[in-house]
Amino acid sequence: MFESLTERLSQAFQRLRAPGRLTPAEVEAGLREIRQALLAADVHYGVVRDLLARVEERSVGEKVVESLAPAEQLLGIVRAEMAAAMGGEATKLRLAGRPAIVLLVGPAGSGKTTTAGKLARHLLRKGRQPFLVCADPQRPAAAEQLATLASRLGIAFARAVEDPVVEVTQAAERARRELRDVLIVDTPGTPPGAAPPPFVADLVAALEPSDVLLVLDALVGQEAVRMGEAFAPLGITGLILTKLDGDARGGAALSLPTRLGEPVLFVGVGEKPEDLEPFDPGRMADRILGFGDLAGLAEVLAEAGGEEVAATAARVREGTFTLEDFLIQFEAMSRAGPLDQLLAKIPGLGKVAPDEEVESELKRSRAIIQSMTVEERRHPHIIGSSRKRRIARGSGTTVQEVNQLLSQYEQARRLVRGLGKQRRPPGGGGRVPVMR
Ligand code: GDP
Ligand code: MG
């Protein structure tokens, strides 16, 4: 997801991270690179223009050029503005009514039926009792596709294929009787740019769904705006962006909330029912900027490692973490499962290629920290050259590798502190250090 955008943005910030202050010309050059990276990622030019104008204004107002950690400060501003462009705070499903009715609409092939199954699974895991309905009078195969999905997931299913308004109303009544609290209604796709069939508007009028979700394919890029506009008369309450696992250049996620004026609620990241993620603008900005997804990582690690790890994650978020906290996280990681999925959530590690290389780097980092005394882990500044030699010997590494780990830690601390100065949306998660 967003590999090339992340790569280019990291390079831009890396160049700005030279020691010392930045001149206004250097900041301007940095902003130009960011602008080009966003445009290359297919972010709409109007969105890029507004985003950069706000970043520029804030970097003047907040005196980035006088800052001692200008790159980190600028990064914090870009992160906050990117999150704002994607809607600011995370938006949740409304799910009002008994049952709550969630209608999925969108162009053909955008992923509605697949998403209906994913959403049902998601809600089931949240303790809800979903009920899937296919409202597609034209294509019997569409109902079959959803019926198969529903039975695989063990979720109640009904067809509404003769007279959708009447049958969906009946399904809602059945759901109420059976104490199923969310009715998820799948609808037929339309050709690109075409309006939905009239019965879909009738469904909205008759059933008053609390959520009308427009499902759009991120691979379509800016074209998705025109497709989406055709659905506006239905009273869209939110977007679901699918196929973000593909080589989408990321532009859609960054542009669509602004251009369609609707928040993204979920993103699809694969074809399987579990490949759905709630969308959080702050976390997405972190990912795009290559900070990984600490909040997501903390959730996975907390499951694997319990309280100790959760406490560690909190210290990372607050910027008060020590090398001891890194060690706890590394160890939880080795218990938590598939390395590649975890790595994707870790800043700076997500985009590096060969698994073995990353794994050996993780092992090395662990060994180095393990060779330190508790005192050294808590107060790394006491580590002078003789201690470094001892640590290198103890961990089977070189002094240079010890230095590298220490400077990563220092850089990470500065980064987190720089970001801490930016106001973050509540629940926006924390950022992890750049570990490379
Ligand atoms: P619909 O016409 O809108 O109902 O679209 P479908 O749900 O039938 O999906 C169309 C195709 O897109 C199918 O092959 C799905 O497996 C695929 N698809 C849907 N969502 C995703 C996603 O998030 N990632 C990937 N890679 N494929 C997806
Ligand atoms: Mg379908």
UniProtKB/TrEMBL annotation:
Its EC number is 3.6.5.4. It catalyses: GTP + H2O = GDP + phosphate + H(+). It holds the Pfam family SRP54. The keyword Repeat does not apply. InterPro entries: AAA+_ATPase, P-loop_NTPase, Signal_recog_part_SRP54_M_sf, Signal_recog_particl_SRP54_hlx, Signal_recog_particle_SRP54_M, SRP54, SRP54_GTPase_dom, SRP54_N_sf. The keyword Glycoprotein does not apply. One of its GO terms (molecular function) is GTPase activity. Residues 263-276 form the SRP54-type proteins GTP-binding domain. Residues 426-436 have a biased composition (Gly residues). Keywords: GTP-binding, Hydrolase, Nucleotide-binding, Ribonucleoprotein, RNA-binding, Signal recognition particle. Residues 417-436 are annotated as: Disordered. GO terms for cellular component: signal recognition particle. GO terms for biological process: SRP-dependent cotranslational protein targeting to membrane. Belongs to the GTP-binding SRP family. SRP54 subfamily. This is signal-recognition-particle GTPase.
